[in-house]
Specification:
Chain lengths: 423, 185, 271, 457
Amino acid sequence: MPPRRGADRPTSTREKPQAGGQPSTDDPRIILDRQIGADLFEPIPPYPPRTEREGEFYTLADGEMFLNVGPHHPATHGVLRLVVKLSGEQIVDVDPVLGYLHRGVEKICENSDYYHVIDQVDPLEYISSLFQEWAAVLSFEKLMDVTVPRRAEYIRVLSGELLRIASHTLYMGFLALDLGGLTPILYGFIERDEIVEMLAALTGARMLFNYFRIGGVNGDLNHEFMSRLGDWMSRAARQTEASAGLLNENEIFVRRTRGVGILDRATALRFGVTGGNLRAAGVPFDVRRAHPYSVYPELDFNVPTRTEGDSLARYLIRVDEVRESIKIIDQCLHNMPDGPVMARLPRLLRPHPGRAWGACEGPRGMMGVYSISDGSDGPFRFRIHDPSFINMETVPTLLPGNLLADTMAIVASLDPVMGGIDK
Amino acid sequence: MDRTLETRLEARLADHLRGPVYQRHDETEIRIEAGSVPEVLRILHDAVDLRFEILADLAGVDTGEVMQVVYHLWSPLTSDWLRIIADGLSRDDPRVPSATFLWIGAEWLEREAYDMFGIVFEGNRDLRRIFMPPDYTSFPLRKDFLLPDDAARSPGAGVRHVERACAPAALADDPTAGVRRAPAS
Amino acid sequence: MSFVPGLGIAKGMALTLRRFFEPKATIQYPETAPDIAVRFRGRLQLLYDELGNLKCETCFQCAQACPVECIDMGGFDTMGRFHVHWGAPEQYAERREKSALRRSGRPVPDPAYSHFDPVDTAVVEGILEKYDFDPRQMLAILESIQRTYGYLPVAALKRVSQVSGAPYALIYGTATYYSHLRFEKPGHIVAVCLCTSCLVAGSSRIAGTLARELGTEVGRGSAAGRVDLKQLPSHVPGATSPLVTLDGKPQPVTATGVAAWARALAGRSLT
Amino acid sequence: MSSVGGFVRGFPGQFWRRLSLQERLALIFAPLAIGAGVVTVLAIVLLGPPFLDFLRANLPLVRFAVAATAILLMTVPTAFVIIYLELKVIARMNLRVGPNRIGPWGSAMSVVHGLKVLSKEDFAPTGADTTVFTLAPVVTYMASVMTLLVIPFAPGLIGQDLNIGLLYFFAVGGLTVLGLLMAGWSSFNKYSLLGGLRSAAQIISYEIPLTLSVVGVILLAGTMSTNRIVLAQSGSLFDWFVFKQPLAALVFFIAATAEANRTPFDMTEADSEIVAGFATEYSGMRFGFFFFAEYVNVFIVSALAATLFFGGWTAPFNWPLAYNLNWFNPWSLGFFGWAAIVLTVLVIGSEFFAVIVKLLGGREWSAWDAMGLGFLIDLVLVVGVLGLAGFIAFDWVQGIFWFLVKTYAFVFTFVWMRATLPRVRVDQLMGFAWKWLLPASLLNLFVTATAVVLLNR
């Protein structure tokens, strides 16, 4: 057990005012009653600070107050809890508290075999499940030296880009919702629902598709999917433009997001932020191009980048990416090769001991999986790198100096998904 | 697979490498001592012919015998992922220099590794549990992690955050401290 | 953001006003059923054939594929035998014993062999050793196991599954596919002598009747696996033809009475 | 309890325990009812005539009391209508269907909302200042209802025609913020506190451009009485002040949006920032009061906008045909005559339409359904005919019609904005008020004053 830091710091702000005369008790309920009116409504943890950072955060200067945003707040995505230190409506400091959704997926995956891992990782970023599967499958295929049929790769790209569009439309909606606009979220959900129904026709599930397999995909394209896809593609571009047009030029929206929560290039790189948030800061890092992993080298699309790095840039990057994804889907449909969709694999997968890192570009950034095999039928170590985790890490840097009203605007513009952050 | 990367790495990090540079698929892997992590990362980040700018991942690993810390880096100059394995940490008191001096983003990744493996990253300014409750006494992703016993041992079993008024430091000594008892009537 | 102030807002208002009159996306569920994709696997159910029989063949594939191992099933397989698949804990214990031990040092409970007739599974290890734990040679493995025990003890199959790592469903499927593999100890051994004198006395017809009545062939176990029909290697000296032995004892069976005798035998052995 | 127990244990208890519940209730309440009845009769007999004299003596008071009661009662259905409108319109703009289960086209939805709010548990959080906490919604609600007193619904149909009507309006309307502030302060919650303070800052800074934008109208009309302002705009469409004071109308509309805490200025209950603002800790009917007050505010603001800039109850054009029903004395028929007429019209009409429905609908219409629908159609038709007649005959019916049309056009605009626009940030809100609205209203005031002076000379 490593020694805990700062355990010996004085607990200055944490003295419970004991009502005079009453015997001291360790019954939490009685303690609770005595705290009422004192600091029960302060989110100060009832133990000495574990680190210097925690200590200085939980000590109030005069004129400052704590505000618990979440875990049950109308605008937190999932169960995120932000302890915000305010002076007036100005944010002084933020301490995100994670772990309300921690399921220990990595441990579960280490105790199941390679087939089962694929749908154990599905609920991580439940908005875009295919990408976790993709990362896991990539790393497993590297472990087992499996080559995937081209048709399977194309189907993966097709479904993946569809899901990327679904995720981005939802992102726009949620951003608008956190800025107080009621309508875009519903347009986003309507569009997402079309895509999700489509994918249900392909994969058999609406949300947690357990579709990718080691060495291919589970099931070929079918007529229902293709007809729905064609029907959607005929109006996808127009629909997206319309939904985006509700916000793109809206003065209020632009004023709310322009110049707010600026994540500049250097900081983004030092944080290791990936995905749209990094591209909004001007770094053209997109795993699909920077480190091609599927048939992406054969496809023609460009990586939109912006230089402002504020919430508006992050939003507009998503809008551009939707357009690019529509282009990619079009190309996939046009040069979709024939052939099998699964490589021939033994029934029992037992790769040789080794290590492999597979990474793919999810809607929120680089989704990576590092798996170690010890020659048994399941991964010995299964490490999931989730982009939302790093995006959330930038929040304590972005928020201070802004107003409380900007909290959710900035957090939403970073597009976190707590299911992925808390693993 | 990028052969030139191998030569470049050997040229730059000759005296830090433990064992040869290992390459497979599009991954290049080097093993180093835990102590030499800062220099190696600094060189990889700054050297003009390496420029590994993006920290893709930082993972702790418990092989059963030793602990490892695994860094994945990306550079615009090569088509390979670079994997750095800081090997040979003792399982009793695993300690590694922190990578936060290069990548602030490593802070939470290291917090997670500490939370899951108990690896102490020296120099991380905010090394506390990130997923598990603050009074949690053991490290879930270790291979000797025993779930049922642990649940029994954890003083926070079923007790809410507000209701507990004792420091994790105290818990380490007396695991039963802070367990909710019947109200003294 | 347009340069004319308020233009963007006006555009947005125009859009919403247009949407005000557009057809709505809501699906009024109970009135209009949503069109659910054909491949949609949101609902798990057991299928029945047109005669109302359960189509499930107890192949355990579903229990094997279930990621959270929540399926705990039992049922009659194609050969009319009842089998039970023990649920998640045994799954972990049996299939993952070694790996679980290696991974977490968790004390793994004893494999649930108490469910079966206790057999010494050390032999199984030897056999697997011989086939170097390769699930692809499952048929040969199973045959040698049956040669050892005279049948396939389920305990042995579980052992095979756990040691070789092959899913139990795979082993079980192989074992049920080949009709010369059986899961039960043979109850009685009926032997027919086919020597010349017995043939003259019509033992071939007797053998045919026995096979028909017992639902098997000469040299096979019966369907229920309880009676084995064999050919006597040689005529027992001093026995009358046609010679039929039950567990080695000659039986007074004639070509006419054999059918009744066999039925009686089947009935008796069924009890 | 002890006394009752003693009573039950005593001798009468024997007799009491033999009774059933209804009998006990009857035994308790029958005497009370009888007593109350006797007292009432006595009161009427003894005090009736002098009371009537008293009423006759000061009619204005009576008229005021009646008007106040009517307005107070009017607010609830108004709120219901606007809530339903909001639900339905926003839903349709979101490509949803909206409430469609309860009542025809879900029109009973808001009523059910009200009942739900009524039936909910109503608690105060630990540490709240209960008195203030309870008073706050009442203050808000009363403040917004009192402003209705000076809204002219139709010629002669106004709560009280004060000659300082507008001044009264803004003075009383300003009280709303007091309630919000009380709520934010008393409910021991940081979100509520932020919401209350925000509302205070917002309403104080928007009162000024609001009032200044109205001053132009006052100058033109030469009076502060809302009724006379409406009269000053009577005539045709182009006498409306919106054409003489376009800038003032714009400023007024924006400021009024903020005054009513409507999107995009709904800082006070910005749900994505401060959970529900001042109403975070409220539940049950206390929350219901706030909820109603918000929608009553929407109605009031729309009504005032219609009154000041869109000619209130005056028709946009001169209504050509008009005949008076003065020859018709409703009392001449007497009660039974009226009853006979109503019955014949309703019964015969319903039967007639029921037959038609049955004939057209065929099998699937049972007799009862057909009669029900027939009755509905007949009712609608009768009401329509009467309304049309009244519209043509009585100018106050006309007035109400035009007034409601204009007001609800504004209400629709508010709802429409809520369905479209995101929320502005609080500092941008303030900046907008002080940097843009205030100078604009001052400019407007200056120009108007100059014009009035020049023209009058």
